[in-house]
Design goal:
By secondary structure, the chain is α/β, with parallel strands linked by helices. Helices cover 44% and strands 14% of the residues. The protein has four helices and three strands; from the N terminus they run βαβαβαα.
Length: 105
């Protein structure tokens, strides 16, 4: 498994039609290797996060709404340091930051 894992909820109300493509474009343009895991009605973001962490992921990025983010955070428990960056509400700021300081992304 790659060190960076994206946990993506395709059914989230926060996901535009091209949200997945935007994420993939941003990561690829920076040369970041990643794996993308999708939640399903039967497999939660928390389950995917735990499995990714157990498989050696160092960076987990939750992409979806509040429920997706909370599921991932709760799935990891207190074992790891977490940073949460809401995707939809601050996406523009993220892209501006990446353009201004590509090393930070």
């Amino acid at each position: 498994m790659n060190q960076t894992v994206i946990i993506f909820n395709p059914k989230s109300g926060s996901s535009d039609d091209d949200f997945r493509a935007q994420i993939e474009t941003a990561l690829k343009s920076r040369g970041i290797e990643y794996s993308m895991l999708e939640t399903t009605p039967d497999i939660s973001g928390g389950e995917l996060a735990r499995q990714a962490f157990e498989d050696g992921a160092l960076h987990l990025i939750a992409c979806g709404g509040d429920g997706t983010v909370m599921s991932v955070v709760n799935g990891l428990g207190h074992a790891v340091e977490k940073k949460v960056w809401p995707a939809k509400t601050t996406r523009r700021r993220f892209y501006r930051l990446c353009r201004a300081e590509p090393r930070t992304c």
